[in-house]
Write a structure and sequence with these properties.
Two copies of one chain form a homodimer.
Chain A lengths: L2 E5 L8 H12 L3 E6 L1 H10 L6 E3 L10 H7 L4 H10 L5 E4 L3 H12 L9 E6 L6 E4 L9 H19 L5 E5 L10 H11 L4 E6 L11 E3 L2 H26 L4 H18 L7 E4 L4 E4 L6 H16 L2 H11 L1
Parallel strand pairs in A: 1-2, 1-4, 2-3, 4-11, 6-9, 7-8, 7-9
Antiparallel strand pairs in A: 5-6, 5-10, 10-11
Helix pairs in contact in A: 1-10, 3-5, 4-5, 6-7, 6-11
């Protein structure tokens, strides 16, 4: 079942960009199904002179809405319908650029947690000079126990294997120093538990290790992980602004000569290249795309959702957790 | 008392770079006093054909050493002597690039906390597209209470006023979303307390706000603040590596044309421009320089230490806290 349920209504640029992304994915041989308001989707498809399968959903859970309340009040929301399609086997995976909370709640309630998973977790992928780094939890679980961090680490390692083909991904604990014994009680306890697993645990890592490629998977609680995620965005954005200010001082010929290099940096730093984060620990592949996803991000998100299904991400997570 | 006690023995590049930095500061009209091994310092001064006042200290607390133990075992360490000079009025401020823990312990024990301060805090300065942003606590206090965050905010606001001349610096709480009610219980409680102060509190800010200039002061616990600090370093370093890789593909003439712009970015992003972090909440100006500080960072650190003394940073922190 390689069909991917695409929440056509979720995200700042939906449905225009979600539909356009799905059409692009389809032309790459993937199998998206668009879920949402039938006439709005039909309009977008007509504009693109494209044809894709559509499943109607009459409601939308908005960004500011309480996720649990939204799920109860709107059983025919696009996100609920996507989740039901995965739960009932009409799709192998789903992707949404809508409310992260609603996607998490729909996945947990409708698709269900994998056996043995205490807390589903959101894993983000970071561009680095080496192979991309998986960082989790990136915001699903604000306050956690040490044993949750161990499960996150196992799930993140499986994701790194599945997405990037790494054999024994190096797992690091996000901390404020490299030596053992650093950090909060949570981090000290998690360090000891991680060291006792069969994971390739490389110890504590710091934010500056993004550049030094010391770990393939970086694990932390959802508060710290989310700060980490958004701080890299802020720092990269700051660098980009300073770069633009500096380059605007150059002679026009120099600016023109430099443009290809800037484009290459942009492409490599761009979250859109990875298409979204993975919700791990539920009984289906769930990709959570950035709220401002363009069609490029959606198409890439459909691709990684497809990869997750084709490479049995869910089965591997479950069997690894059972063996951990 | 504008004399600045400089720990000549602290830091990866000491004493060569610390002495060289002090000589540079002296030539700018500042008044450093070098503290450490008299003959080692004399050698460096001779190499530079310079003359500066020296106070001998026969011991050094090493980076890995337990700070409290080091202070007890080595009463004649360079860091202890610096702190005693501030405590006894022979210097108005001190700067060290050695063990942060030892500098904090020496300041708290020998110089003493300011009245009413529950926890001294380390404040770092970040380059941003607008005026620099003060971030605290950047690692001194791993686990804190909401009322500590309020004191950090007050002290950070005073530092922003003193260093950058801002009148009503905007204070933000580092969080994982902009809306009130986000984050851990700590953050929710701190939000309510901050909103009730006379600070110019702008609410929650995120790491991505580094680029959007929403706050002049960003407050958090020392674990999160330290992750924030090191993640910006890692992200900036990652961008720099990607830039170098991309630019190395350009034609030689284009590379040469771009060099001045790269130098300008480097200068603006460089922590050395700010010379160090401030330890706030003790009865003296204490600047904690980066462990790998070059002479440029040391000279700038001596300058900001001088500014702190000349503009009565300590008195202003104490009076603001008393009035908060």
């Amino acid at each position: 079942m390689n069909r991917i349920a695409v929440d056509a209504m979720g995200g700042d640029l939906a449905p225009a960009e979600t539909v356009r992304g799905a059409v692009a994915a389809s032309s790459m041989g993937l199998e998206p199904i668009l879920v949402g308001d039938q006439s709005a989707i039909a309009n977008e498809l007509a504009r693109l002179e494209a044809d894709l399968p559509v499943v109607h959903a009459s409601q939308v859970i908005e960004m500011g809405e309480d996720p649990g309340q939204g799920l109860r009040d709107k059983p025919d929301s696009s996100i609920s319908v996507c989740a039901r399609m995965v739960a009932e086997g009409q799709a192998g995976a789903m992707i949404s650029a809508g409310s992260t909370g609603a996607a998490m709640a729909a996945a947990a309630i409708i698709i269900g947690r994998s056996q043995g998973v205490a807390r589903p977790t959101i894993a983000s992928v970071f561009p680095t000079p080496g192979s991309p780094t998986v960082v989790l939890d990136s915001g699903a679980n604000i306050e956690v126990k040490p044993e949750h961090l161990v499960q996150f680490a196992v799930m993140g390692a499986v994701l790194s294997e599945v997405l990037f083909g790494l054999e024994k991904p190096r797992v690091g604990l996000l901390n404020i120093g490299e030596e053992p014994g650093k950090g909060r009680q949570l981090d000290k306890d998690a360090f000891d538990l991680l060291a006792a697993t069969s994971l390739n645990f490389v110890g504590n890592v710091e934010g500056r290790d993004l550049a030094t490629d010391r770990a393939d998977v970086i694990v932390s609680d959802g508060f710290t992980g989310n700060v980490f995620l958004k701080t890299t965005e802020g720092a990269a954005q700051t660098m980009a602004i300073l770069m633009m200010e500096a380059f605007s001082q150059l002679e026009p010929e120099a600016q023109a000569a430099v443009l290809p290099a800037l484009g290459e940096i942009r492409r490599r730093m761009d979250y859109e290249t990875y298409g979204g984060a993975h919700l791990l620990g539920v009984n289906g592949v769930v990709v959570i795309a950035h709220g401002s996803s363009s069609h490029v991000a959606i198409a890439n998100g459909i691709r990684i959702a497809h990869d997750g299904v084709a490479r049995d991400l869910v089965g591997k997570v479950a069997s690894r957790l059972a063996g951990a």
